[in-house]
Amino acid sequence: QAIASYHDDRNGALRGSSIVRVFYIDDLKVVHMGDQGCMPGEAALDMITDADVMMIPVGGFYTIDARQAAELAKKIAPAVTVPMHYRGDGFGYDVIAPVGDFLRLMDNVVMLDDNVIEPEKLDAPVVAVPKCPRG
Description:
This protein is of the alpha/beta class. 16% of the residues lie in helices and 27% in strands. The protein has a seven-stranded mixed beta sheet with strand order 1-2-3-4-5-7-6, covered by helices on one side.
């Protein structure tokens, strides 16, 4: 499924539109929030509720920030939340916040040893942070 959204909080006036993607993979509902720049409306929230895995931008500036991402993740309550679009050691723009800003707002954070996520092996609900190959 594709859910229309915006890359900013001004209905796309600054950075245009964005798309939230919902994938059904085997028995999993996987939500990729894309370059979400605003809080989703009620119709979009209904479509992403009950996600098994949700990938969500957390770095701010070009997308929602850590506080907004934490609010959204807690509202949706996926089994596994995967932060994305943040600055790390050796990658990301200086204007984008590090992942720690988001992680401090969340419970049950697991730093993974590699970049493979196996939801069925995690003690849900969990925030899973894959190891970045460059960081």
